[in-house]
Amino acid sequence: MTVTYDPNDPAYYDETDLRTELTRVYDLCHGCRLCLSLCPSFPTMFDAIDARDGAVEELTAAEQDKVVDECYQCKLCYVKCPYIPPHEWQLDFPKLMQRAEAVQNRHHGDLKGKITTQVLGHTDLIGTLSSAAAPIANRAIATPGSAIRKLMDKTVGVAAERVLPPYARTRFSTWFKKRRRRGESRLGRPEQARAAIFSTCLVEYQNPAIGKDLVKVYERNGVTCDMPDGAGCCGAPWLHSGEFGQFTKQAAANVEKLAASVRAGNDIVVPQPTCGYVLKRDYPEYLKTEDARLVAAHTYDAAEYLWKLHKNQLKPESSSVSGDTSIDTEFAGDVPETTAYHVPCHLQAQNIGLRSRDLIKLTGSKVTAINKCSGIDGMWGMRSENYDLARKVAQPLAQAIDKADAEVVAGDCHLANGAIDQETGRRPLHPLQLLARAYGIPEELDDPRR
């Protein structure tokens, strides 16, 4: 048996070795059960072991693999598990599931599954083409269950009934560069910090409005914004599918751009939780380079950065900030009386606190935090084979939002917000969009003429 989470280890893809390691870890998890409520994987595992009177070694390969299939990499194991490295038991459940996924793909993967991984992995290519043809692309994907969506389901494995986010005609980077050329950047107070925006695929191609409001809120608070040229998808779809070669290639290309931006005096700000987690945790772990560690040390969630600025907690040695800092707390715009705030899994796993909730509270809105999973977690919930289970996972979230009956729903994760839309019919705002409206900053919509 090899306790390895390194895809470069010679034993990593050895299926017999993997089965032994799965047995070891399942036995430890079965004896602990702290993660019972986190995701479907653990109840499935415990039920299978209990049915064999605790004889974990008697589980079949199919029973082991069902646990793997139901893991959607929410990372919340890291919050609850007492045995994660450097504990002597070296239990890293998410990375073991990634290893199992990689072994399955290498030895048993079917053609449709590989096609789905390729489609979901090439987010920049798909995003570039779909934004260029946004009206056509959006009509094609707009209606769940349509003939086109059923064809997509059969050919590329994206669930026919899943509500998909539309593509913007004008990409965020295009808007940002044109605005900078026109000299429209205006700081609302003396410069306090400098931040480079890692926009993510979801903001770049599908919801640039989040990025626009982020820039305007930051500038109002004396943060000069930049955007690294050439940075692309963080690589999470490759990583979560066990395609480590593609992931490290993407990660290395991004780190080169981001490290140069940090050395130029910028911090890195990420408006999507999954991507922020990947930059902070996965880049240094898989690349093992000084530049990856540099980028990770200077990467912040978008709300985290603003909150640290507010609390004067950004230290000069690890940020672009020097001197005392603060943010504007005068909110003369639209402030909802109540807000239901969804806590994304990948944000909770960063262990930075609920900074989006805290910022919303500053506006005077009464906030109900809803800590329930959306069942999306990266691209897992987009796959046709996971669709029914993903919706089942999302039901407690939908019920909690309905119970809160708040004026506004907010959430940091655009994919999770899509699931909320599907389950409740309500379209959440990113917290920084809510903050922008509270400041009185008008929403800037996509220009239909472009």
Overview of this structure, please?
By secondary structure, this protein is α/β, with parallel strands linked by helices. Among the domains are: 15-108; 338-439, Rossmann fold (3-Layer(aba) Sandwich), CATH 3.40.50. The protein has 22 helices and 7 strands. The protein has helices spanning 15-32, 41-50, 61-69, 77-80, 93-108, 111-121, 123-132, 134-141, 147-156, 172-181, 200-206, 208-220, 236-240, 244-263, 273-287, 290-297, 302-310, 345-348, 355-362, 387-404, 414-424, 431-439; strands at 193-197, 223-226, 267-270, 299-301, 338-342, 366-370, 408-411. The strands form 2 sheets. A 4-stranded parallel β-sheet has the order 2-1-3-4, sandwiched between helices. Strands 6-5-7 form a 3-stranded parallel β-sheet, sandwiched between helices. The protein is globular and about 65 Å long. The mean pLDDT is 92.
Could you name the key traits of this structure?
alpha/beta, Rossmann fold, 3-stranded parallel sheet, 52% helix, globular
